[in-house]
Amino acid sequence: MKLMTRKLPLVALAGAISLTGTAIAQDATITIESWRNDDLALWQEKIIPAFEKENPGIKVKFTPSAPTEYNAALNSKLEAGSAGDLITCRPFDASLALYDAGHLADLSEMPAMAEFSDVAKSAWQTDDASASFCVPMASVIHGFIYNKDAFNELGIEAPTTEDEFFAVLEKIKADGSYIPLVMGTNDQWEAATMGYNNIGPTYWKGEEGRLALIKGEQKLTDEQWVAPYATLAKWAPYMGDGYEAQTYPDSQNLFTLGRGAIYPAGSWEISGFNAQADFEMGVFKPPVQESGDTCYISDHTDIGLGMNAASKNPEAAKAFLSWVASPEFASIFGNALPGFFPLSNAPVELSDPLANEFVSWRAECESTIRSTYQILSRGTPNLENETWGASVAAIKGANSPEELGMKLQEGLESWYKP
């Protein structure tokens, strides 16, 4: 893909105009709050220098907290009036709560918001989508990473349909050299995240089904929501001995050591797998049920950037947010963190081959987000956590798919009214 470039207005002098149409004060300094302390070098060495070069009147400080401390530290700063100008946003409810409390500004009228799809913006909007309060930065995409050396050795190709997928698993199992499908159920979340919400969108037709569930037009007892559990139940014979006690790090190690053939994955694994695996890897998208069917991918919104409603430098902050929507930022971020994909509509040239393959699916398939993340996990029982347990139960054969759907629907109906 060819990288499209677009020059943004300079804001070097007082009175320069940003994409927001507001004058920028000279020599403004803005501070960014974030939980991504592992990204500190990236921001200091690449992102901030690139922005400041185009905007010499604005200085930027990146001041992250430890991930586990971020929410509490940020809330304390906001309440005390000492938080930074820009707030790194977690998806959905955590950021919505900040907006509802008056801590995040409404960015709906920023021209830069037009650079993003409705799906990309959905993680940082009010329930009725009337207000957008964070600029989308990146998502992660689900699929399957596979050992190309193993596939070549066994003379098999990446599957595209479910029948082909299980035929491949059967051939790998019959050979006996590799664990066909590397995933455990000990930590539970993988079964839902890399299992149910990986293959499920092809059944419930992505956003069509997800939004219908929120509106009450579909139920978790409907065939399209139950069927993925039946498919997960067919995974068990291929997951290797002792998968029930296998942890997430166990699965990562088994795959990167070359003992497994296929890893149900999120694109966030790319950097770690590149560093650990000494074999060539490939990726394939979630198989469709029948050849020619529309493909659906979980292109899950992960990180955004909002403006502190109490910022003393709103014009400078909006200038930075507008730049975050630019192809230049997308190129820097997407290549420095392969597997975290920029959410703007502009095409970006990525250098990592696995990342390129993942992101190419956006042009081929319909994108959606994880079905449980918006609205449906605000109450008790929490649908996201309940889906973890249901996915594990499906794989182990502890309950029928129909029983699982009924339990989940009853739990949801006990507190949620569309």
Number of strands: 10
Q: Can you tell me the number of structural domains? A: 2
Using the alpha-carbon principal axes, give the shape. globular
In CATH terms, the superfamily of the largest domain is Periplasmic binding protein-like II
Mean pLDDT: 92
Can you tell me the CATH class of the largest domain? Answer: Alpha Beta
SSE sequence, one letter per element: EHEHEHHEHHEHHHHHEHEEHHEHEHH
**Share in β-strands:** 5-15%
Secondary structure tally, helices: 17
Estimate the helix proportion, in percent: 25-40%
- Reported by name, the CATH topology of the largest domain is D-Maltodextrin-Binding Protein, domain 2
Report the end-to-end length measured between terminal Cα atoms.
42 Å
Output the radius of gyration. Answer: 22 Å
Uncertain spans: 1-25
How would a crystallographer describe the biggest sheet?
Answer: 10 strands, mixed
What is the level-2 CATH architecture name of the largest domain? 3-Layer(aba) Sandwich
Structural class: alpha/beta
